Amino acid sequence: MSESKQKFKTEIIVAIISLVGVIGAALLTSWDSIFPQNEDHSSPIGIHSSSPNLDDSSKLAAPKPTKPECSATIKTPPDSDSIILGWEPVQNASTYSVEVDCFGCSEYGRTWHSLTAGVPWHIKTGLGLRTPIYSSKIHVKRKEDGGLALRWRVWAVDQNGIHGDKSDWCNLSFYGGS
Fold first, then answer.
1. What distances in angstroms separate CA 74 from CA 48, 54, 81, 149, 152, one per listed residue?
2. Do both 124 and 168 map to the same domain?
3. Position with higher pLDDT, 27 vs 168
4. pTM value?
5. How far apart are the C-alpha atoms of 134 and 138, rounded to whole Å?
6. What does the pLDDT look like over 122-152, one tens digit per residue?
7. Looking at the 3D structure of the chain, how many domains does it have?
8. Domain of 156: which CATH number?
9. What is each CA distance from 68 to 25, 85, 151, 171, in whole angstroms?
10. Are the CB atoms for 171 and 153 separated by under 8 Å?
11. What range does the domain containing 98 cover?
12. In this structure, are 99 and 164 located in the same domain?
C-alpha cells in the first residue's frame, strides 16, 4: 500500500473518531432534553419506579417555633439548667433538626456566626422522636463564646431522610447572668 493511501486512511479514521466524540459529547450534554423523565416515574414497558416523587409539593412544611416565643428576651438560666426550644409538629415528619446561631460569638464580633463563618454555630439532628422539643445548655456555650443573643430554626426530616422547609429564624435575647 502506498504511503499516500495509508495517510488517507489514517485521516479518515481520525475524522471518524473526532465525529463520534463530538456526537457523543453533544448527546451527553443534551441527555435530559433528548430523553426526558416520565412524570409518572414509569418505564416505557410499564415497570413503575419505586423512587419517591421529589417535587416541591411533597416537601415537608416548615415547623412553627413555639417556645420560647420568637423575639423573646429571657433571664439567662443557671448553667445547670437547660433551655427548651419547642415547635409545632409537622405531619409525616420522622425527626427534626435544629440550627442555633450566635450573635457576637468568638472572633466574629457583632454579627451572626453563620453569616461570617459560613457554617452553622450549632446544629442538632435526630430530634423530636417523642415530642417536638430540643432541651439544651446552649446558653452556656453562648456565654463561653462571648455571645449576646441566639437565633434558632427547625426543619422536619421525613422517613427517607429528605429535609423539609426550614422555619424562619426565631431570635432569643438574654438578660441577667447566672
1. 54, 40, 13, 10, 15
2. yes
3. 168
4. 0.66
5. 10
6. 999 999 877 899 999 999 999 999 899 999 9
7. 2
8. 2.60.40.10
9. 56, 6, 11, 9
10. no
11. 60-175
12. yes
